[in-house]
Design goal:
The protein is about 25% helix and about 40% strand. By secondary structure, it is of the alpha+beta class. The N and C termini lie far apart (about 30 Å).
Length: about 90
């Protein structure tokens, strides 16, 4: 179990959330995205590999012409210690 902290010093907890992604003018929903949330300032974080996976899934959904897609983390993509990115940066 990853124990990471938010910039504010609070513990963050992983939650599965549906998140919107965008490619140019297309908006798609990616379901069950693993995001680490700070319960205090509500800042969201994602691991680097999950960040890339999120972008891939958004692109895939747009290519398939669907409005939503399951996140589906690839096997073996569990880490004990990884850098966390601020989630807003993953959406770009
Ligand atoms: Zn915080």
């Amino acid at each position: 179990m990853m124990k990471e902290k938010c910039l504010c010093g609070n513990q963050i907890q992983m939650q599965f959330k549906d998140e919107l992604g965008r490619v140019i003018d297309r908006l798609v929903t990616i379901k069950n995205v693993p995001i680490y949330y700070c319960t205090d300032c509500e800042e969201g974080y994602m691991t680097g590999p999950d960040c890339l996976q999120f972008a891939d899934r958004v692109r895939e959904a747009v290519e398939l012409g669907v409005e939503e897609l399951e996140f589906e983390r690839e096997k073996g993509m569990e880490f004990d210690q990884v850098a966390l990115n601020n989630f807003t940066h993953c959406k770009k």
